[in-house]
Amino acid sequence: MVLTPFGELPDKLAARLSMAEQFEYLHAGLSRRRFLTAAGLAAGGAATAGWLLRDTGLWLQSDPVAAGTPIGPRHVSFGADPGREAVVSFSVPSTFRQASVRYGLDPSFGGAAGVNTLTVPGTPTVYGHAPLTDLTPGNRYFYQVNVDAESSEIASFVAAPDQPAAFTFTAFGDEAVSAPAVRILEQIRRIGPAFHLLAGDICYADSAGSGKKSDHFTPAIWDRWLSMIEPVAASTPWMCATGNHDMEPGYGIHGYAGYLNRFPVPATGAPGCPTTHTFRYGTLAVVALDANDVSYEIPHNLGYSAGAQTTWLENTLTSYRAPGSGIDFIVVYYHHCAYSTSAKHGSDAGIRKHWVPLLERFDVDLVINGHAHQYERAYPVRAGQVTIQPARGDTIDPQVYGPTHITAGGGGAPASDQFHGKGHSTLTQHDGTRTPETAPWSAPTRTNTHAFLAVTITPTGVTGPTMHIQAINDTGTVIDEITLRRDTPTV
After folding, report:
1. Exposed, middle or buried, 462 (CB in 10 Å: 0-12/13-18/19+)?
2. pLDDT tier at 426 (50, 70, 90 boundaries)?
3. What is the C-alpha to C-alpha distance for residues 205 and 224, in angstroms, rounded to an integer?
4. Is the dihedral of CA 342, 358, 399, 329 positive or negative?
5. Could you tell me the pTM of the whole model?
6. Is the alpha carbon torsion for 255, 258, 261, 263 positive or negative?
7. Dist CA 132 CA 411 (whole Å)
8. 324-328, 415-419, 476-480: segment of lowest average pLDDT
9. Which of 14, 344, 382, 462 has the greatest count of CB atoms below 10 A from its CB?
10. What ranges in 18-153 are assigned the alpha helix state H?
11. What distance in Å separates the CA atoms of residue 357 and residue 335, rounded to the nearest whole number?
């Protein structure tokens, strides 16, 4: 039996129902009025801000509340235009009367933003989100959260530049709350990246992510995770994709309301796919996909967009590769892997069928995945054939050889996954069966060590724009690296 704040979900139903069917089952006892109120629809709650609260199941907090509540962890995320829009988010352990975020170019501030507040069933925590919509690209902004009579420490973040500039971002998947995750975060804090990407399986409040009897659901883990990431996320914008552990029974029709109420997402994604988004940072374009929509391995959300996400991906990549777009590099990140020799998960035929042809057609440079709690770099592949076998430290042109796929699922979750024998893997088919396959695309460096990616973008210069990719473990040691250089810039 899977226990949720909405009631019990029998194991047999949890295993075979889609997330939408689970939502309907768990909420069947609500009256229509209660359902509309809980969904934030009776009062028009879904209209709040351009990048907040899309398809979340919206649990709005509006009652008068007591003052003096201590302020909990903060994090920053991008709005639709990272140079001009950001969201400062925070949480407190109980209700409050009023809140605001003061911000400005120095600690004297000068501006203030109102706060949208949300609650999530299963925890008394109140989550606040303050949209900042009048930023100037490239500037550092200081901010302070104010809740009733309490004020947070002052923190700062940098708005994205609107001109070509060198910068570094970091990425991993499968974080959880753990000692290795804390060590990884410390390494990222020392780098001070422009932003951070998390490729799904965020905090593991749903411990198994399979909808089966082994699932244990603990909503309070979200608050532990937010506290853990605050030393980095209060100053480094975090952007996330969703994985199988982020589909939580009863939390919206896709199971994403628990995430979306805690973590705002810019409204730049695919229609009806609430966790997808895209943004530009200098000459880099980033695209976040929801692999639960096309993955054959764990099918609870399989096909929910009816192809809309794939169409949106094609249109988005067309725009970024259009002449004069100003984009050199494209990074696409999502959870499940097209190319992995993980013995637990292997590769996913759904990803290969729906997305890999587009990634190759539009010369996407780097694909970042999680799911397997490992590090593995795949050799570039076009039409199923390896195009080159770059060694550690090599430089290659992705326009010639195709995308580089990297599994970076060592963000902090237990690194217990094993690998198939070298040159071998499995491929999950539409019916869930796994068929053996050879894996000539698997590069020699593969490890289940906790590790993350640090990616440095250098705009067009004498040798063309470069993307230097390093895999760094939780002690700060570089375990793999490769450079992508576009010898024929596309801007």
Report:
1. exposed
2. very high
3. 10
4. negative
5. 0.90
6. negative
7. 29
8. 415-419
9. 14
10. 19-26, 32-38
11. 17
Share of the chain above pLDDT 70, in %: 87
Q: Find the mean pLDDT for residues 351-378.
A: 98
* Exposure b/e, 114-139, CB count within 10 A at least 16 = b: ebbbbbbbbbebbbbbbbbeebeeee
Token pair listed for 359: 């990634």
Residue 481 neighbours by CB under 8 Å, 6+ apart: 392, 393, 468, 469, 470, 471
CA distance 219 to 203: 10
Backbone angles phi, psi at 188, to 5 degrees: -65, -40
Indicate the residue type of 460.
T
pLDDT at 378 over 90: yes
Determine what percent of the chain is predicted with pLDDT higher than 90: 77
In 17-102, which residue ranges form alpha helices assigned H by DSSP?
Answer: 19-26, 32-38
CA gap 13, 2 in Å, rounded = 10
H/E element holding 308?
helix 308-320
Mean pLDDT calculated for residue range 474-487: 96
DSSP state of 93: S
Residue 153: both structure tokens together: 């420490």
Q: What is the token pair recorded at 228?
A: 């853990």
> Locate tokens 């705002």: which residue?
264
| Per-residue pLDDT band at 246 (split at 50, 70, 90) | very high
Q: How many CB atoms lie within 10 A of CB 270?
A: 25
Beginning with the edge strand found earlier in the chain, give each strand of the sheet holding 466-473 in spatial order.
238-241, 196-199, 167-172, 451-458, 466-473, 478-485, 395-396
Q: What is the pLDDT of residues 223-234, one digit of tens each?
A: 999 999 999 999
430 phi and psi angles, rounded to 5 deg: -60, -30
Tokens of 21: 């069917």
